[in-house]
Specification:
The complex is a heterodimer. By secondary structure, chain A is an alpha+beta fold. Chain A has one domain: Nuclear Transport Factor 2, Chain: A (Roll). Chain A is 21% helix and 36% strand. Chain A is built from three helices and six strands. In chain A, strands 2-1-6-5-4-3 form a six-stranded mixed sheet. Chain A starts with 13 loop residues before the first helix and ends in a 14-residue tail after the last strand. By secondary structure, chain B is an alpha+beta fold. Chain B has two domains: 101 residues, Rieske [2Fe-2S] iron-sulphur domain (Rieske Iron-sulfur Protein); 263 residues, Naphthalene 1,2-dioxygenase Alpha Subunit, Chain A, domain 1. Chain B is 26% helix and 24% strand. In chain B, the strands form five sheets. A seven-stranded antiparallel sheet of chain B has the order 3-12-11-6-5-4-7, with no helix packed on it. In chain B, α3 runs antiparallel to α8. The longest helix of chain B has 26 residues. Chain B is globular and about 75 Å long. Chain B starts with 9 loop residues before the first strand and ends in a 24-residue tail after the last helix. The chains are: A alpha+beta, B alpha+beta. At the A-B interface, β2 and α3 of A face β13, α6, β19, α9 and α10 of B.
Chain lengths: 180, 445
C-alpha cells in the first residue's frame, strides 16, 4: 500500500545547522584519511595551520594544569603546513618505509561540540578512536580528542589550528606515521 | 649463581655476530646486571630539575629511578622502591616535593633518600625497626655539561674517565656555550626492537641514503637541504671513531662549511650561519681553536644506551625498547633558532619524526630475525672495513679510514662482550686519554 510521505518543515537553529555542517566536514575528513586521499586531506588546512600534539604527563590531580605540555615545550607533533606537506609528499615517493606497504586505518570522529568565536572562526572539539593495522600483525588503537579552530576560506571550512590529545603517556605504537 | 658464562659472540676478524644476543631472555637478564647494573647511564639533565626539591622520574635500564635536587641543591638518583614492600614512592613524571610518601603504608622519605617516618614505629614495631638503614637506595651521580649520569657500581671509574676522549668530540655539541643547554622532553614510545640494534644504528651512516631517501627528497624539495648520496658518503672526509664503548661520527669542517642542524631550512639558513659565526669566539675560548673550527659531532652513541646525544634506548625485554626523545637547546640562542630546532626535532626524530619513523621496521625485523629458527643460525654480517681503522695524528680514538665503516659496530659488540664477561670493573679496560682538551670547558660546563 502506498501513502505519500508526509511533508514537514524541520526547523534547525543556526547553531544546529553549523553543527551539521561541521559533522559532515569531519565525516568527510575520516573517509579521506582512511581512503588515503592525503592530498585532499591536506587541503582541509589553512596555509598558516598549526598541527599540534603535545605530550601528556603523569602529574598529581591537583597539578592537572601541568598534564599537557604547553606550546614551546617538545611536542609529538608541532607541524606547520610545510611539514605536513612533506609528510604527505614523502608517501608518494614509494620509499617512505614506515608506510610502504601502507597502514590500514579507520578513523571514527564523534562527540562534536561546536563553539562559534567572536572573530567569525569556530572552535570544534571531537573525540576519536583511530585503529591502525600494519604489515602482518601489528595493530594499535588510539583514543583521544582534537580541538580545532576552523576558518572560512573561499566559502569552505579549513582547520587553522588543531590540538590533538592522545590518551596515552608512553605511546604504545612503534611509530606515528599516520594522521589524526 | 653459577659461574659467569664466557661470551664470544663476535669474531672481530670477520664481523660475524651471534644473533642469540637479540632474543635470549637469559642473556637479556644478565645484561641488566652486567651492563646496566654497572655502567654509567644517562638519566637526565640538570635543567629538568632546575629548582631545589624538583624531581624527574627516569630509569636506569629497567629500574625506576627518581632524579632529585634536594633542599641543599644536591642531585640524587634514588631507586623508586619503598624499602618496606617495594611499592613505588613516586608515580608522577616530574614535580616538586620535599618528601615522597609510599601510598601503601605511608612510609615517608626525604628527597635526599633519607628515611623520615614509619607509621606505628613505636607501637606496631616496638621501636625495633632500624629505620635509618632503610633510606631509598642511591646510585652514584655525576654530571657532564649538565647531562646527569648515574651508576650502581661503587667500583666504577669517574664519569670523566668513562667518557674519556669521547668528550673531546661531545664538547663540540654539548659544551659549546657558557650559557649551557636546556633539555625539553622526553617523548616516550615503545619499539618492538632489541635495544642494542638502536644503539648500533647510531654510527651506521651507511643506512641513511636508503632508509631515509623519501625524507631526504622532501627536505631537499621543501627546505632546500642538500641530498646525501652513497657516492658522496664513500668519498667523505668525515670520520667514524670509537672510544671506551662510545661510537662517534663527526664532520671534518672548515669556516666555509655550511652548518646544519635538524629544522634549518632555506628560510633560516642565514640566521643559523650568523648565530654560528657570532658564537665562534666564545667557542674558541671554551674548546680551543682546532675543535671550534674543525670538528662538528655527528651521529653517535654513548655506551650502553645513549642514542644521538641526550636520548635514551631503555631496555624493556629482549625485543622491546622504550625510546625517550629529548631535544637540547642552547639557552642564549635567539628565539627563532630555538623554534626551528625544537620543531625540527619533532619533525625529524621522535615517534612521528620523518626520518626516525622509517627506522623502526628495519630495526625490528633485524632483531626479529633472531627469533626465526633457521635465520638465527646465520650470523649478522658486520665485516665492512675490517682492518681499516687505527690511530690518527689529529683525532683521538680508534679512527676508521672511511666515514662509512662498521668498525664502531664491531667494537660496540666487543665492548658489550667485555662487560658481559667481566667479574668487576677491574676486568673492564679504559682507553688511555690522549686528547688535548684546549680551552676553558670542563666536565662541569
Amino acid at each position: 500500500m502506498h501513502t505519500s510521505a508526509p511533508t514537514a518543515t524541520v526547523v534547525v537553529t543556526p547553531q544546529q545547522a553549523l553543527w551539521l555542517e561541521l559533522m559532515q566536514f569531519y565525516i568527510r575528513e575520516a573517509w579521506l584519511l582512511d581512503e588515503r586521499q592525503f592530498a585532499a586531506w591536506l587541503d582541509l588546512f589553512t596555509e598558516d595551520v598549526l598541527y599540534f600534539m603535545p605530550r601528556r604527563k603523569n602529574v598529581p590531580r591537583r597539578e592537572s594544569h601541568r598534564e599537557v605540555t604547553p606550546l614551546g615545550d617538545l611536542a609529538v607533533f608541532e607541524d606547520d603546513k610545510r611539514y605536513l606537506q612533506m609528510r604527505v609528499a614523502r608517501l608518494e615517493t614509494g620509499m617512505a618505509w614506515a608506510e610502504d606497504p601502507p597502514s590500514r586505518t579507520r578513523h571514527l570522529f564523534g562527540n562534536l561540540v561546536v563553539e562559534p568565536l567572536d572573530n567569525g572562526e569556530v572552535q570544534a572539539k571531537t573525540a576519536f578512536l583511530v585503529y591502525r593495522s600494519h604489515l602482518e600483525t601489528d595493530q594499535q588503537l588510539f583514543a583521544g580528542s582534537r580541538e580545532d579552530v576552523l576558518r572560512q576560506v573561499n566559502g569552505a571550512w579549513k582547520v587553522a589550528k588543531r590540538t590533538i590529545l592522545l590518551d596515552a603517556n608512553v605511546l604504545l605504537d612503534k611509530n606515528l606515521s599516520i594522521f589524526f | 649463581m653459577s659461574a659467569t658464562p664466557q661470551y664470544a659472540i663476535i669474531d672481530p676478524e670477520t664481523g660475524k655476530i651471534d644473533r642469540h644476543i637479540f632474543m635470549d631472555q637469559a642473556i637479556y637478564d644478565e645484561e641488566m646486571e652486567q651492563i646496566f647494573g654497572r655502567a654509567w647511564l644517562m638519566i637526565g639533565h640538570e635543567s629538568l630539575v632546575p629548582r631545589v626539591n624538583d624531581f624527574f622520574h627516569t630509569y636506569m635500564g629497567e629500574d625506576p629511578v627518581i632524579l632529585t635536587r634536594d633542599s641543599q641543591g644536591q642531585l640524587h638518583a634514588l631507586l623508586n622502591m619503598c624499602r618496606h614492600r617495594g611499592n613505588r614512592v613516586v608515580r608522577c613524571d616530574d614535580g616538586n616535593a620535599r618528601h615522597f610518601m609510599c601510598a601503601y603504608h605511608g612510609w615517608t622519605y626525604a628527597n635526599d633518600g633519607t628515611q623520615e617516618s614509619v607509621p606505628g614505629e613505636l607501637e606496631a614495631y616496638y621501636n625495633a625497626l632500624d629505620r635509618c638503614a632503610l633510606g631509598l637506595i642511591q646510585a652514584r651521580v655525576e654530571t657532564y655539561a649538565g647531562i646527569v649520569f648515574a651508576t650502581w657500581a661503587p667500583d666504577a671509574p669517574s664519569l670523566e674517565a668513562y667518557l674519556g676522549d669521547a668528550r673531546w668530540y661531545l664538547d663540540t655539541v654539548f659544551n659549546r656555550r657558557d650559557c649551557g643547554m636546556q633539555a625539553l622532553g622526553p617523548l616516550k614510545w615503545l619499539e618492538p626492537v632489541n635495544w642494542k640494534t638502536v644503539v648500533d644504528n647510531c654510527s651506521d651512516n651507511y643506512h641513511v641514503p636508503t632508509s631515509h631517501l623519501s625524507s631526504m627528497l622532501v627536505q631537499h624539495r621543501y627546505l632546500g637541504r642538500p641530498l646525501i648520496t652513497h657516492e658522496e658518503q664513500f668519498q667523505s672526509p668525515n670520520k667514524h671513531l670509537f672510544v671506551n664503548g662510545h661510537a662517534l661520527t663527526f664532520r671534518e669542517v672548515d669556516d666555509n662549511t655550511p652548518r646544519y642542524v635538524h629544522g634549518i631550512s632555506r628560510d633560516t639558513f642565514q640566521a643559523f650561519q650568523e648565530y654560528y659565526h657570532t658564537t665562534l669566539p666564545e667557542v674558541e675560548r671554551r674548546l680551543g681553536t682546532f675543535r671550534a673550527h674543525k670538528i662538528q659531532l655527528g651521529n653517535h652513541s654513548l655506551f650502553p644506551n645513549g642514542v644521538l646525544g641526550f636520548r635514551l634506548a631503555l631496555p624493556r625485554g629482549p625485543q622491546r625498547t622504550e625510546f625517550w626523545h629529548f631535544v637540547l637547546l642552547e639557552r642564549d640562542a635567539p628565539e627563532v633558532i630555538k623554534h626551528v630546532i625544537r620543531t625540527g626535532s619533532q619533525a625529524y626524530n621522535g615517534a612521528a619524526g620523518l626520518f626516525e619513523q622509517d627506522d623502526i621496521d628495519n630495526w625490528r625485523q633485524v632483531t626479529a630475525a633472531s627469533r626465526s629458527p633457521i635465520a638465527r643460525q646465520y650470523a649478522q654480517e658486520l665485516s665492512m672495513g675490517v682492518g681499516h681503522a687505527g690511530r690518527h695524528p689529529d683525532y683521538p680514538g680508534l679512527v676508521s679510514e672511511r666515514y662509512i665503516s662498521e668498525n664502531n659496530q664491531r667494537h660496540f659488540y666487543l665492548r658489550w662482550q667485555e662487560f658481559m664477561n667481566a667479574k668487576s670493573w677491574a676486568d673492564i679496560h679504559l682507553d688511555p686519554m690522549t686528547a688535548r682538551f684546549e680551552g676553558t670547558a670542563t666536565m662541569q660546563g
